[in-house]
Amino acid sequence: MQANTNQFSWFQVPEDIKNLLVLAAQNWENTSKSEKYIQQALAQTGENTDVLVAAYRFFYYKNNYSLALQTTVKLLDKIKEIENFPDDWEQLQPILVNRKEEPQIRLYLNAYAASGLVLAKLGEIEQAKEISTRVKQIDEKHDFGSGLLLDILTRPAEEDD
Hints:
By secondary structure, this protein is mainly α. The protein has helices at 15-26, 31-45, 49-61, 65-83, 89-99, 103-121, 125-138, 146-154.
């Protein structure tokens, strides 16, 4: 089955991979079938950042938070490798601050913020707070949503009257 992939000309992957992603979208209602297409795209592209982002979104909106987290970690690791980022946050933070307007760094910050959201969904609240705090410190424009997530995670419980 061939899908119209012309509408995804910005997507930097081969036509057969675009086709798999379109088929996943067209079969959205059939989770097992659409996930099969996503998994095929992931298997064939290795760690292509565009496909990892598409897969993260797919898994997140299908409420498969463990696979969404796994995909986000792969994306973060891929960017970390490409950019030769240090492991230590204290060394990484100034790099992110200084380069936060670069597309690859914005993608990293978006993915890192997304991992905090997914961790919160998985009940890993302390890890989610840590990530949200880190991203919020870099994000004075509130582009990545971590401030909002942190506010939600740290909001005191409402008392019942």
